[in-house]
């Protein structure tokens, strides 16, 4: 099975499938850059319940080739993050945040507490845990968290999710990429007009220069390979 097959098969039909009301799910997000970069990680991504399209390009290609499925879903405040936080606050489910630097995760939690003052935050920890993975997992399990959000970049965050699951965590786990770092100053990283007009990628191209290199190098390759996969009937 190819990475394209796994990606397409595990796309959610709608965002509601991903909320913490459905227990025990492992959910991650891939964009064309990571799909191309991680082609040899098929066995890793087969272990996830859902893989969301973090960007519009795969969804547009699905539609163009008559294989319509899913919508763009990212773990940020324009998409799933807001729905998860709203749900956890309303249902009183506790949440643990893991990722980024100590300074960034501290600032992120402060922003979240300001905007979600009754959200039950079970704990948080920076993402530089190479030599303390098991102790961090023990901390998460002892915290009583029902939801865990992991932002360490792919494939590290995805490998951690699967390991955490194997160690006995039974709640929902979401990866979030650079969400913590993007949310250190304010709750909404994207201006409202950027989200309204679906200009998030262009906004990042301007404000995060490394994104341009990724787009130029990997997106054309993805568009060709994924289009051939769709044209061949998902084979």
From TrEMBL:
Source organism superkingdom: Bacteria
Keyword Glycosyltransferase listed? yes
Give the keywords, sorted.
Answer: Glycosyltransferase, Transferase
- GO molecular-function annotation terms? hexosyltransferase activity
> Which CDD domains does the record associate with it?
Glyco_transf_WecG_TagA
The name this protein carries in UniProt is Glycosyltransferase
The protein's organism comes out as: Bacteroides stercoris
